[in-house]
Amino acid sequence: MDNIDRKILKALQRDCSGSIAEVAERAGVSQTPCWRRIKKLEAAGYIDKRVALLNQQALNLRMTAYVTIKTAQHDESWLNAFSDGVAQIPEVTEIHRMAGDIDYLLKIVATDMTDYDRIYKKLIKVVDLSDVSASFSMECIKSSTELPLDRI
To answer: What is the pTM of this model?
Structure first.
């Protein structure tokens, strides 16, 4: 990966809805080499997918909860049941297996506390959990899907 590839990735992270010509201009290359580089970056796995980022507030998903989970079970069958079950809850937008005091961290979006409670009740039916605790975001100070590219 060279500096041009990084510029292309940076341009795509900011806005992938533009034409190849627009991406090429932002990266400082002509269209055909830009298109070829994008195809190579996709084939190499640097680009997972291109998506539209939706406005959470406009969609009335005004509550973001960060849910910590502890479990006494750490075997593969429990993990598979947990992963498969939680993946079926669309309001869970992120699932992280953690190191440290907690085992899993989930990001959940909901309309309000009543909606969160509905999601919580789905979550605790998935598998046996030792402890489930939530913290609620009062204000999002920074949110970005852009990864830092200057060190790769």
So the answer is: 0.87
